[in-house]
Amino acid sequence: MKQTTYRMIMELKKDLLIPTKKSKFRVILGILFVVLSASWIALRIVDDQIIRPFDWIYSGVFALTGLAHALEGFGISFLALFFKAFLSIDTERISVKLGVFAKEFNLDWMEVQSINYTLNKFQFMQKDGHIKIMDVSTLDYTSKNELKSVIQDIALSKQIQTVIR
To answer: What is the DSSP string of the chain?
Structure first.
């Protein structure tokens, strides 16, 4: 008889700002935008015209757009340079930031009395009677399942009552 063993997962660290696929088109588009921004100022100088604040702003926006497209084309997330979005769960703490503009959710496992999961929401009943809710509706299916599995495994190891469907 074959025996099946279940390995508990006690940690999840995942960057939600996934690098994009490399794209030659986006690199070329980015370079084109940067060249356009530089040529706008160069044309003003060659024509002996005054370079107004509008020209600098216009060129700056084009250059930043070009830089963003070029970086994304090389597979580097432009948002990841300035923002964070992550899942970080271990045996001490739950720390989740689901989007670049989302509020970070933090909770120590020592504070948790019970966990209930329904309809894309984790409800953490704390030992002091307060309930903290973590909405995971913006997560993809795979990340949601990883999150549920890790939370369930850690809660089981800490003997915390869980209802996760």
So the answer is: -PPP--PPP--EEEESSPPPPP-HHHHHHHHHHHHHHHHHHHHHHHTT----HHHHHHHHHHHHHHHHHHHHHTT--TGGGT---EEEE-SSEEEEE-STTSPPEEEEGGGEEEEEEETTEEEEEETTS-EEEEE-TTS-HHHHHHHHHHHHHHHHHTT-EEEE-
Query: What distance in Å separates the CA atoms of residue 58 and residue 92, rounded to the nearest whole number?
Result: 49
**Diameter over CA atoms, the chain:** 88
**pTM of the entire structure?**
0.72
In the block, residue with structure tokens 């074959």 = 2
How are beta strands 131-135 and 161-164 bridged, if at all?
Answer: unpaired
The sign of the dihedral angle between the CA atoms of 28, 34, 35, 36 is positive
Q: Which residue shows structure tokens 């997962």? A: 9
58-114 pLDDT, tens digit each: 999 999 999 999 998 998 888 878 889 999 999 999 999 998 899 999 999 999 999
